[in-house]
């Protein structure tokens, strides 16, 4: 079953024609010109599960690459976007400082792959929950390299007058795995 899911994910990636490049620090990055913005999928009737998955991936790539302006295109001025990170820390608001400070946390992703997406919609189609797995590895500036990373995540997306916006994310390490390091 995992092989079928993996094949489906690869086919979806090719079908969406998303180009990936590796940055100089090793983090996986998607070509921003191919990624949707929240405003591109603002009509509830027209938004497909694939479009929601693309938004989810685009937000996460912006977040990982500390690109606040891009991440903000998926966040609302009308409410605070929050996150429970995979390291078990307290609920955090996703602010400019929180998103951009990741570049100075002492570690970087070598690889970050999102897979096994599932989209569940509310009865009135105004809220969607996206669940997925995230796997890869990270390296510490002064220490271990290629440390395995394996989590599961969920994101809550709500329709606003300005398109679909991310309200909350929750990340948890998979059994016998580790999430992101705790900042000291």
Structure description:
The protein has helices spanning 2-15, 49-64, 68-72, 96-100; strands at 20-22, 28-30, 82-84, 92-93, 107-121, 127-140, 147-160, 163-173. The chain is of the alpha+beta class. The protein has a single domain (2-173), classed as Nuclear Transport Factor 2, Chain: A (Roll). A 6-stranded mixed β-sheet has the order 4-3-8-7-6-5. Strands 1-2 form a two-stranded antiparallel sheet. The chain is globular, with a radius of gyration of 16 Å. The N and C termini lie far apart (40 Å).
Quick overview:
The chain has 184 residues and is an alpha+beta fold. It has helices at residues 2-15, 49-64, 68-72, 96-100; strands spanning 20-22, 28-30, 82-84, 92-93, 107-121, 127-140, 147-160, 163-173.
| CATH fold name | Nuclear Transport Factor 2, Chain: A
Q: Proportion of β residues?
A: 35-45%
Q: What is the CATH-assigned architecture? A: Roll
Mean pLDDT: 78
- For the largest sheet, list the strands in their spatial order: 4-3-8-7-6-5
Please trace the helix and strand order, writing H or E for each element.
Answer: HEEHHEEHEEEE
The CATH class: Alpha Beta
Number of strands: 8
Largest sheet: 6 strands, mixed
Figure out the total of helices: 4
Indicate the overall shape: globular
Number of domains: 1
Question: Which structural class do the helices and strands define?
Answer: alpha+beta
Throw out a few tags for this protein:
alpha+beta; Nuclear Transport Factor 2, Chain: A; single chain; 35% strand; 22% helix; disordered N terminus
């Amino acid at each position: 079953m995992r092989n079928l899911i993996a094949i489906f994910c690869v086919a979806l990636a090719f079908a969406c024609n998303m180009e990936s490049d590796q940055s100089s620090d090793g983090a996986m990055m998607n070509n921003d010109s191919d990624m949707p913005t929240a405003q591109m999928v603002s009509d509830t009737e027209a938004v497909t599960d694939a479009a929601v998955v693309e938004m989810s991936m685009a937000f996460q790539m912006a977040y990982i690459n500390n690109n606040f302006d891009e991440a903000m295109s998926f966040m609302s001025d009308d409410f605070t976007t929050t996150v429970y990170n995979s390291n078990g820390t307290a609920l955090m608001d996703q602010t400019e400082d929180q998103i951009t400070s990741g570049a100075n946390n002492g570690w970087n992703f070598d690889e970050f792959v999102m897979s096994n997406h599932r989209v569940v919609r509310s009865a009135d189609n105004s809220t969607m929950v996206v669940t997925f797995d995230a796997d890869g590895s990270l390296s510490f500036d002064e220490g271990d390299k290629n440390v395995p990373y394996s989590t599961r995540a969920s994101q809550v997306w709500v329709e606003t007058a300005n398109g679909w916006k991310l309200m909350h994310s929750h990340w948890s390490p998979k059994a016998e795995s580790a999430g992101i390091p705790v900042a000291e």
